UniProtKB/TrEMBL annotation, chains A, B:
<dbReference type="Pfam" id="PF08502">
    <property type="entry name" value="LeuA_dimer"/>
</dbReference>
<keyword id="KW-0808">Transferase</keyword>
<dbReference type="InterPro" id="IPR002034">
    <property type="entry name" value="AIPM/Hcit_synth_CS"/>
</dbReference>
<dbReference type="Pfam" id="PF22617">
    <property type="entry name" value="HCS_D2"/>
</dbReference>
<dbReference type="GO" id="GO:0043714">
    <property type="term" value="F:(R)-citramalate synthase activity"/>
</dbReference>
<dbReference type="InterPro" id="IPR013785">
    <property type="entry name" value="Aldolase_TIM"/>
</dbReference>
<dbReference type="GO" id="GO:0009097">
    <property type="term" value="P:isoleucine biosynthetic process"/>
</dbReference>
<comment type="pathway">
    <text>Amino-acid biosynthesis; L-isoleucine biosynthesis; 2-oxobutanoate from pyruvate: step 1/3.</text>
</comment>
<dbReference type="InterPro" id="IPR054691">
    <property type="entry name" value="LeuA/HCS_post-cat"/>
</dbReference>
<keyword id="KW-0412">Isoleucine biosynthesis</keyword>
<dbReference type="InterPro" id="IPR005675">
    <property type="entry name" value="Citramal_synthase"/>
</dbReference>
<dbReference type="Pfam" id="PF00682">
    <property type="entry name" value="HMGL-like"/>
</dbReference>
<dbReference type="GO" id="GO:0009098">
    <property type="term" value="P:L-leucine biosynthetic process"/>
</dbReference>
<keyword id="KW-0028">Amino-acid biosynthesis</keyword>
<dbReference type="InterPro" id="IPR013709">
    <property type="entry name" value="2-isopropylmalate_synth_dimer"/>
</dbReference>
<dbReference type="InterPro" id="IPR036230">
    <property type="entry name" value="LeuA_allosteric_dom_sf"/>
</dbReference>
<feature type="domain" description="Pyruvate carboxyltransferase">
    <location>
        <begin position="6"/>
        <end position="272"/>
    </location>
</feature>
């Protein structure tokens, strides 16, 4: 059977930049474009040159890619020719091999919002596409508001697509601009468009997630015959976002009927890097990755229910629809007071601790976990602390060092007209009889105060004597605080995520009525886990 | 045309609790159950009594609801009768009007994971359902792994459903347990099940979001004839979560073909409270609400693109698939904002500040609020701080006192065998040229350390000179901390609730990378608001 080629068009750098709070720098765009190219997408839409100074700069510095670089713009405006439209000229001047222009296809909006006739709209589309083709570029047409337009006045909507096609557009992209069309209707209308004479091999689909159906809508159009799909990494985009390529790509590559009938430019090796690409984008945006994200989320293969955990050990496919490593993700069996002993054994096994099914220590560990959860600890988001608790119970936790005392000071004072805050931490560590004092301030790279936990973290990591080389590549990457119930009192729970130079990421938890001390406890666990994992030898 | 009734089954309290990091307390479950009942769902699945102490306690204290309270459990185990199965008994003993039990329908898993015969599995299902019915309860059957089971051995999967139906199950729920089935297949198999003799009015659908298609899969099953849909608020749930009712409900109520052919127990008035319910759940979980969530996210009706924003003013439907107020959400246009100004006037009026419709200061206040929200402040939950910001902009904020400086120290040290922490705060206040130093420790009534914010709060309230009588009846009653985004950096947002002897309760907010300073800012706002409300006269 010959598989048909499906083309993947990424618009993270253009439509993704419409996300509230997102503004990529040129160097960030370069980094993302390189990652997209390595992933194997076919088109990279880089931005709207002319509409945005960053986008123009980016095209001037765009990296060499195997993917087709595409500039985005809009059809020529009324009352001038395509060659004399300066907005269109700025797009074309970016020099990309492909140019995608958006035009209205909803007659009500053509006449209302644009205030031009149907004929003028068709001319704007046709002459803009022809102009791009005349310059030797590949032309794509984004049919804005297409599904609403088709329902409003099918003849005009279709005429718009035909005008683009006759002028030489390589692709006609059906856009559900306001995101309100449901998958069944997207599939049906796409089939009707193909029946009306636009071949599927020239049809693209562009969905938004306003009803939570952007992925399903894209799949419906592909099932109906569309052979280009547009979307963004992690579903970035205006309002609720665009179709999420991070969810679509694995479905298209791994699931029937798509996997059997279509082929893309993405190899299994590249797919195994998908989780990393998704996290890289969050890292650039300084966002906490969505744990529940399909395929790539940290919880996507996490099994909390005790029943599930025991079934997973017998047959992973029971609760895992794909093997997590296919997309570069990993299985996680977290602890919680819902978990049974099988959960516990699986989690211990993952930490390299083998323990027999009927070992009485299993019940002891569960009791300890339960008691600590009643005090406010939460272990299903803090695997590393869980492992330390279990090891302590099993007598498998070496004592690397002691913190004799610490003192953290937070000060705020007026300095001239300004109010300044500064934190300072002193930590006293004892290792094999040797005492060392370390002091750190809480200044970030920009010289501003980052608070007491920052100071404490730095002081704790400053002088661990024989262990120093193990922890030098460690950094605190996320910090979550929650006021919760510990017994009858409110306490503070702090969860800290740490990373090291080997790409490990681990989470630890601390609980106390004192937020600084809760943080300290989580920091201490983070350091101890790292020493354990690196196989550090306890001194003394 | 007669609309068919569609039943909405919420499992936030059961399957939603499988979310990594989620562990509801009994009082949180009560609060969520009340909100679900007010929303108008038909079933509230409250948990698994017996499997989890919290769930058992919750059922003992469950509120009176119009919705049918449902306890979850599993079919009787092999080798004993339904009446003698203690796990099933614990579920039934919760005394709910309905009981939902899960059973395997995938023959491979029946023989593999359970290690029992097909006949024994059918007996477990039938006798468990019959036992529940015999006690006069409504019985529901969750057909676990149904879609995979149907593909593996259709005869056994169907026999399981028939066994449940013949034993008197009111509902048979098709579960896509590992979340791997795509919407088209869910729709097709649901139709096949109906054709095989299970009527749609007894069929439910339970989807998971592992491919990002849980909403679409649920819609496909409903389109095929299923008349019960299961899901959770905000799509909580194991791994990638369950079908998101917060997205499904508005689609079912507002969109063709569902809105025209089905009716639910949810009124338009209740639907207009959906955004509030969604935010309440995030508040309980101390999660940052997902801005891009369909329908209820803060960005769901935010229009960033300049082109979109101007089109919106001419025709909202161009970029809004539904009117945002339908679901209790609001449009956000980051430039001119008419709706923003009328909201603002209403909030000012609530604080006793009358201001004319066309007062140019309204725009200035909105700008200030917007700028501060970009820095991480949140004024929705901090009306007192909002009032202070508006008053400052209007020149209506007296200056009661200045804090010249403060210093907070947190120490931890060994005292004998014990580890002790202690916090101390020094605050220097200046009132009309008079300087006063106050110092406090952080000891609770039981002599334990309550942390740096406690010490700071006490020191700040210790000597405010002429204002002291106003603040003596003030106390800090709640304290919430969240790590959030301020510009490009993570910052700490602290919200403090205070109360006074007159029964007033007010909320203030502070933001800083330094958690102690964020708390200080919120404390300062709390004191200033109290002085303002008590009509204190500024000295000097």
């Amino acid at each position: 059977m010959i598989r048909e080629r499906l083309f993947i068009y990424d618009t993270t750098l253009r439509d993704g930049q419409q996300t509230q709070g997102v503004q990529f720098s040129v160097s960030e765009k370069v980094q993302i474009a390189r990652a997209l190219d390595a992933l194997g997408v076919d088109y990279i839409e880089g931005g709207w040159p002319g509409a945005n100074p960053t986008d123009s700069d980016f095209f001037a510095q765009a990296p060499q890619t195997r993917a087709t670089f595409t500039a985005f713009g809009m059809t020529k405006r009324a009352g001038r020719s395509a060659a004399n439209d300066d907005v269109l000229a700025a797009v074309i001047n970016a020099g990309t091999p492909a140019v995608c222009i958006v035009g209205k296809t909803h007659l009500g909006q053509v006449e209302g919002a644009l205030g031009i006739s149907a004929a003028d709209n068709l001319d704007a589309i046709g002459s803009s596409i022809a102009h791009i083709r005349g310059l030797g570029r590949e032309a794509l047409f984004d049919a804005e508001h297409f599904f609403d337009g088709w329902k409003h006045d099918r003849a005009h909507a279709l005429a718009c697509l035909m005008a683009a096609r006759e002028a030489g557009a390589a692709w006609i992209v059906l856009c559900d601009t306001n995101g309100g069309t449901l998958p069944d209707e997207i599939g049906r209308i796409t089939a009707e468009v193909i029946a009306a004479g636009i071949p599927g091999r020239q049809l693209g689909i562009h969905c938004h997630d306003d009803t939570g159906n952007a992925v399903a809508g894209s799949l419906a159009a592909i099932a109906a015959g569309a052979r280009q799909v547009q979307g963004t990494l992690n579903g970035l985009g205006e309002r609720c976002g665009n179709a999420n390529l991070t969810a679509l790509i694995p479905t298209l590559l791994l699931k029937p009927p798509f996997a059997e009938t279509l082929e893309t430019g993405i190899t299994p090796e590249a797919l195994a890097g998908l989780t990393r690409v998704s996290r890289m984008l969050d890292d650039i945006l300084n966002r906490v990755p969505l744990r529940s994200a399909p395929y790539v989320g940290a919880s996507a293969f996490a099994h909390k229910a005790g029943l599930h955990a025991s079934a997973i050990l017998k047959d992973p496919s029971s609760y895992e629809h794909i093997p997590p490593e296919t997309v570069g993700n990993t299985r996680l069996i977290p602890m919680s007071n819902q978990a049974g002993q099988s959960n516990l054994r699986a989690r211990l096994a993952a930490a390299g601790i083998a323990i027999a099914r009927d070992d009485p220590r299993l019940a002891r560990i569960l009791d300890t976990i339960k008691t600590r959860e009643d005090q406010g600890y939460a272990y299903d988001g803090a695997q590393a602390s869980f492992e330390l608790v279990a090891r302590a119970e099993l007598g498998l936790l070496p004592r690397f060092f002691d913190v004799t005392r610490y003192r953290v000071t937070v000060e705020r004072r007026r300095v001239g007209a300004e109010i300044k805050t500064l934190s300072e931490a002193v930590v006293v560590v004892q290792i094999d009889g040797h005492r060392s004092l370390s002091v750190s301030e809480s200044l970030g790279e920009d010289g501003t105060d980052r608070g007491p936990v920052n100071a404490l973290s730095k002081a704790l990591g400053k002088d661990l004597g024989p262990y120093q080389s193990c922890i030098d590549d460690m950094k605190l990457v996320d910090f979550r605080v929650r006021i919760t119930q510990g017994g009858t009192d409110a306490v503070t729970r702090v969860i800290i995520d740490s990373e090291d130079g080997q790409g490990r990421r681990w989470s630890t938890v601390g609980v106390s009525p004192n937020i600084v001390d809760a943080s300290f406890e989580a920091l201490l666990d983070a350091v101890n886990w790292k020493l354990l994992r690196d196989g550090a030898t306890p001194v003394g």
